[in-house]
Write a structure and sequence with these properties.
The complex is a heterotrimer.
Chain A: H1 5-9, H2 15-31, H3 33-47, H4 57-79, H5 86-114, H6 122-154, H7 159-188
Helix pairs in contact in A: 2-7, 3-6, 3-7, 4-5, 4-7, 5-6, 6-7
Chain B: H1 6-10, H2 24-43, H3 45-56, E1 63-70, E2 73-75, E3 78-82, E4 86-93, E5 100-101, E6 103-108, E7 124-127, E8 133-146, E9 151-154, E10 170-184, E11 190-195, H4 202-206, E12 209-215
Parallel strand pairs in B: 1-4, 3-12, 8-9
Antiparallel strand pairs in B: 1-2, 4-10, 5-10, 6-7, 6-11, 8-10, 11-12
Chain C: H1 23-45, H2 56-85, H3 108-136, H4 148-183, H5 192-199, H6 201-210, H7 235-263, H8 276-307, H9 319-353, H10 360-373, H11 388-400, H12 402-416, H13 425-448, H14 450-456, H15 460-490, E1 492-493, H16 496-522, H17 537-567, E2 569-570, E3 597-600, E4 615-620, H18 628-631
Antiparallel strand pairs in C: 1-2, 3-4
Helix pairs in contact in C: 1-2, 3-4, 3-5, 3-17, 4-6, 4-7, 4-8, 4-9, 4-15, 5-7, 6-7, 7-8, 8-9, 8-10, 9-10, 9-12, 9-13, 9-15, 10-12, 13-15, 13-16, 15-16, 15-17, 16-17
The chains are: A mainly alpha, B alpha+beta, C mainly alpha.
InterPro entries (chain A): Cyt_c_oxidase-like_su3, Cyt_c_oxidase_su3-like_sf, Cyt_c_oxidase_su3_a-hlx
Keywords (chain A): Membrane, Transmembrane, Transmembrane helix
Domain Heme-copper oxidase subunit III family profile (chain A): 1-189
């Protein structure tokens, strides 16, 4: 047994650790591009560039813009981590980002409720699966942002504790980018 | 892995405080019990169900009964009828993708299930519907219907039933199809099997079958 | 539960508290609760006519609930979730005793052994099923399996568990987790908590696949072929879900090991000095990080095809798309399994020969090129579905890939050349592995030829070929590695006579079983059939006998290793005279591996006169070679702290 393992276990995130986990997180996010590549390829294969005339372009734009805004606000939370009352400013931005994300998800749920495309059709099945993938990633992202909000409320803003918030923002930005790419593929191309 | 003698485990230390120590016996007994339960569910389900049925019995159904076909099972897959009761079976195919039929009889010839040889359509040695008067109505999405030896009355235009010959009494429904079968339970008491022989018995082999216990009047 | 309180009374009585439930049992309980919650919810939202309690959609969501419940129950709730949310927790990692292998852990050595434990469990279950299959094939008609679909389900469970819970897991999750950090002089892995979570997904996957017959039979084998799966009962759902859990676990391993190799190498351990086994792990980890998300997406699409249902891969969709997507992953998967074995050969041979590794760079280049080419050969699994013009490039690349594979042989043979090799048990296993893989590789060259392929497709020739490559490389090398590292893992060693005898029996039984598969295939024995023409019976009968001996031999080896683990003779600190860093600490290694940070000062594969000990253990800091602190003189930890780092919790 080494001496004082307990101390190591609870030790703060060291700079080397920070860079390692940040690398891992970014690498993980990079691997998650693959599922969308597969889905976009399938979309191209199954129905080419066809877009159902019933698809509501307004909602498509609204969802994408909301997600873009949400990602931008979330990114601002990272920049707000220094200075006085950092905790409040970070918390506000994260909450606004989560709210905008929820709104974007509601636009999709509303469109699903309209049932304008049949899941049996070529366009419909890719539309539901790609937007469904967006939703799954958004739910995971929201859980991560939610944890970051909860955690920030309970703990100080020391950098080793801030990593959770940072990771959730990275993931959230990825979710937004994937969302916008999906919007381009499903509604535009 | 360092090997610890049991003596070491009893020694208190700061890391393994007594509150953190879960029970070894509980662990062994619990996992063994879960293993046994798993083996029973995997291999002995049907015996358990049969035993429970023989102990508790099964309620007699009469009047209107729904029989749903899914991929690949029936709901219900066990019914009790009584001789002389008036029945209306509403047979509905709930599958989104598969054609399903309802045949009933005894002694399926399992030699046909071997990989080689011909696969005749009449698998039951004894067809339950032989000589039974039955009225068919409300056909929807019927792929075909084989009356065999049954005495069938059709309600509505016959074209909707797509009547064919060859094989056991078998209404075959397209996905989403349904059919009403009205009859008086004939005097054929005992245990009868039913099943779906579509796709060369794949459905039946995969478990799409059930039983009807017919009680004497 | 009172019997758990075995500790004598101490000075002040602790407040009365029930002994906690064993984590595994709690995990089962919480999994059941999770299943019931989500299953019932889905049934309430989406009731089926006739009111079955478990439906296709409900079982999918119920499974997700069960998996989450399982992970939380095994210790995530206390160890990860509470601290993550900023709540206090009573969780303390257990530092010793057998119990730490049956709960959540963050020590990469514990996790590695957990992976090995579960992988061997999967191997034994799947091997037992293989014995049933061989028993069935002793006669040309159905005996123990009532229907062909039962047999096909057994084949599917055998293949799925062998591929996803053993072949992919044992060397990478098991040996990789245990030895990669040790071999790069690291004190722990980067994502130690995530890694501890991932390992508990392996039993989830094994149990899911094993219990798939509860939902009905499936006939597709380990590939989940569409549109064949379209005619399967709901059992195929558990195939997709189980494989999802197993691949997720392997994905976590890959991410963790890549990050660990990037950031935790000891000072002086440059990429040029990286041990070969670590190179092998990094290459396959990169393969996994590319292809596992791909196959997971494909399986989710196939799952939706089944439960919604959609028409991606059915007859009205594009069945060939599924085959393409599957084999795009499927062929790299084969190299994910084999490449660590190639690496192990060149890890062990220089040690046993006490001779410098021949052409070290070429051995590494071979591994990397196998990795790169493996993504270019997938369609050779589908020659029967392709046009001639499409076949040729894949045939070409398939034959090309034998060249980088040959580099591994070149280094091994060059090292053995004129050496005084110690022909002990690990070495014997490695040589056997090289022989078996050679047979597997050569028969693969036949299959790469389109015309021969069209004849041999779906026969036992193919079955013989892939069992020679997978068992021949991964399982034989795995046993070699375990015998080689047994002194490291347990501090104990084995008896050479017993070890060699068991190795030779296994080798003979293996070759007598699977070499005849080629002949059976040439005589017209098809895969995927429990009943076959009667003229094939004598040979099948005899193959089955050898298969049972092979099964017993594997079991004997596992039991013997287990016996030596506890009762073997004490081994020396570095019994083989190896130079890689894992041997420069005590056996088994302490919690943080090295008392002080080792430094690498020379090549790990040079032997003979004038070579120095490459690993020195001076008291440096714990920072890795590549950390910014050692490279950037301006670096200051407080740059990360908003108020100068004054705040700590």
């Amino acid at each position: 047994m080494t001496n004082a393992p307990e101390q190591r276990r609870s030790a703060a995130l060291t700079p080397a650790n920070y860079r390692a986990v940040r690398f891992s997180m970014l690498f993980f996010i990079a691997t998650q591009i693959v599922p969308f590549v597969v889905l976009f390829e399938a979309k191209y294969l199954y129905d080419g560039s066809y877009v159902s005339p019933q698809a509501d372009q307004g909602f498509g734009v609204a969802g994408a813009v909301l997600m873009a805004l949400s990602a931008w606000v979330a990114w601002q939370a990272l920049r707000a981590r220094t200075g006085p009352d950092a905790r409040e400013r970070v918390a506000t931005r994260l909450k606004v980002a989560a709210g905008l994300g929820l709104l974007a998800m509601l636009t999709v749920i509303y469109q699903w409720g309209l049932r304008y495309a049949s899941p049996q059709g070529r366009f419909g099945e890719m539309y539901y699966v790609i937007s469904g993938a967006d939703m799954v990633y958004a739910v995971v992202g929201l859980i991560m942002v939610g944890i970051a909000i909860l955690r920030n409320a309970r703990q100080d803003m020391a950098p080793e504790r801030f990593w959770t918030a940072e990771a959730s923002v990275y993931f959230w930005v990825y979710v937004a980018l994937a969302w916008i790419a999906s919007w381009v593929v499903v509604f535009l191309l | 892995m360092e090997y610890e003698s049991p003596k070491d485990e009893k020694t208190p230390n700061t890391e393994n405080s007594e509150e953190n120590q879960w029970s070894r016996r509980q662990f062994l007994v619990g996992t063994a019990a879960i293993g046994v339960a798993g083996a029973v569910t995997l291999f002995g389900r049907q015996s358990l169900v049969n035993a429970a049925r023989s102990v508790f019995g099964s309620p007699v159904s009469s009047g209107t009964v729904h029989l749903y076909a899914y991929d690949y099972y029936y709901i219900p897959n066990y019914m009790t009828w009584r001789v002389g009761d008036r029945m209306e079976v509403i047979f509905q195919n709930q599958s989104h993708t598969h054609w399903h039929e309802w045949t009933m009889g005894r002694h399926v010839n399992e030699a046909y299930f071997q990989a080689f040889g011909n696969l005749p359509a009449d698998a039951w040695q004894e067809d339950f519907w032989d000589g039974v008067p039955v009225t068919l109505s409300d056909p929807y999405g019927i792929d075909n219907f084989v009356p065999n030896q049954a005495i069938v009355t059709y309600v509505g235009p016959k074209a909707a039933y797509n009547i064919q010959s060859g094989g056991d009494f078998s209404p075959t429904l397209k996905p989403g199809g349904s059919l009403h079968l009205s009859f008086t339970v004939p005097n054929k008491p005992g245990l009868w099997d039913f099943g779906c022989f579509v796709q060369q018995y794949i459905h039946y082999r995969t478990g799409m079958r059930g039983q009807v216990m017919i009680l004497p009047a | 539960m009172a019997h758990a309180m075995t500790v004598p009374e101490s000075g002040h009585a602790p407040r009365p508290r029930k002994a906690p439930m064993p984590p595994v049992l709690r995990a089962f309980l919480w999994a059941a609760i999770g299943f019931l919650l989500l299953n019932t919810f889905v049934i309430a939202v989406d009731p089926f006519r006739g009111h079955p309690f478990v439906t296709g959609p409900s079982v999918v969501f119920g499974w997700v609930g069960a998996a989450i419940g399982w992970l939380l129950g095994i210790g995530l709730y206390d160890a990860v979730l509470l601290p993550l949310m900023g709540f206090p927790t009573r969780w303390q990692e257990r530092q010793q005793g057998w119990r730490r292998y049956w709960e959540f852990a963050t020590d990469h050595k514990v996790i590695g052994l957990q992976y090995m434990m579960f992988a061997v469990g999967g191997f034994l279950i799947a091997g037992g099923i293989a014995m049933l299959m061989r028993y069935e094939l002793m006669t040309p008609y159905l005996t123990i399996f009532h229907y062909p679909s039962n047999y096909l389900t057994a084949v599917g469970i055998h293949g799925t568990l062998m591929m996803f819970s053993f072949a992919t897991v044992f060397m990478i999750g098991g040996l990789g987790n245990y030895f990669v950090p040790l071999m790069i002089g690291a004190r722990e892995t980067v994502l130690s908590k995530l890694s501890g979570i991932g390992v508990w997904l392996v039993p989830v996957g094994i149990l899911t696949v094993l219990f798939s017959p509860l939902l009905g039979e499936w006939s597709t084998g380990w590939r989940g072929y569409e549109p064949l799966a379209g005619q399967d009962a709901n059992g195929i759902l558990f195939y997709y879900l189980g494989v999802l859990a197993l691949t997720m676990s392997s994905l976590i391993v890959a991410l963790n090991l890549v990050a660990t190799v990037m950031f935790r190498r000891a000072p002086g351990l440059t990429w040029g000095r990286l041990p070969l086994f670590v190179w092998g792990q990094v290459t396959v980890n990169l393969l996994m990080l590319i292809w596992f998300p791909e196959i997971q997406t494909t399986f989710v699409m196939a799952l939706l095809d089944k439960v919604v249902p959609l028409n991606f891969f059915t007859a009205t969709g594009s069945p060939l798309t599924y085959l393409m997507l599957f084999w795009l992953f499927g062929h790299p998967e084969v190299y994910i399994i084999a490449v660590p074995a190639f690496a192990i050969w060149n890890e062990i041979i220089p040690v046993m020969a006490q001779k410098s590794l021949f052409g070290r760079q070429w051995a590494v280049i071979g591994l990397v090129f196998v990795m790169m080419l493996s993504g270019l050969v997938w369609a050779h699994h589908m020659f029967t579905n392709l046009r001639n013009s499409e076949i040729l490039p894949f045939s070409f690349f398939t034959e090309m890939i034998s060249i980088p594979t040959g580099f591994a042989y070149m280094s091994a043979i060059g090292t053995l050349w004129k050496s005084k090799v110690r022909l002990n048990t690990p070495m014997l296993w490695i040589l056997m592995s090289m022989f078996n893989f050679l047979i597997g590789g050569l028969t693969g060259v036949f299959l790469a030829d389109p015309i021969v392929n069209l004849q041999l497709h779906d026969t036992f020739w193919v079955v013989g070929h892939f069992h020679y490559t997978i068992i021949g490389s991964m399982v034989f090398s795995g046993f070699g590695a375990i015998y080689y590292w047994l002194p490291k893992l347990s501090g104990r060693t084995f008896n050479e006579t017993w070890g060699k005898t068991l190795a030779i029996i296994t080798f003979l039984a293996f070759n007598l079983t699977f070499s005849q598969f080629f002949l059976l295939g040439l005589h017209g024995m098809n895969r995927w059939v429990p009943a076959y023409p009667a003229y094939l019976q004598p040979m099948n009968f005899e193959v089955s006998i050898f298969a049972f001996i092979l099964g017993a031999a594997f079991l004997g080896n596992i039991l013997y290793i287990g016996y030596c683990w506890r009762n073997g003779a004490q081994a020396g600190e570095n019994p083989w005279g190896a130079k890689t860093p894992e041997w420069f600490t005590s056996s088994p290694a302490p919690r943080y591996n090295f008392p002080v940070q080792p430094e690498i000062v020379g090549s790990l594969y040079l032997y003979g006169e004038g070579t120095k000990v490459p690993v020195v253990t001076t008291a440096l800091g714990e920072l890795a070679a590549t950390s910014r602190a050692t490279q950037d003189p301006q670096f200051d930890w407080h740059d990360y702290a908003p108020d100068g780092g004054g705040v700590t919790s």
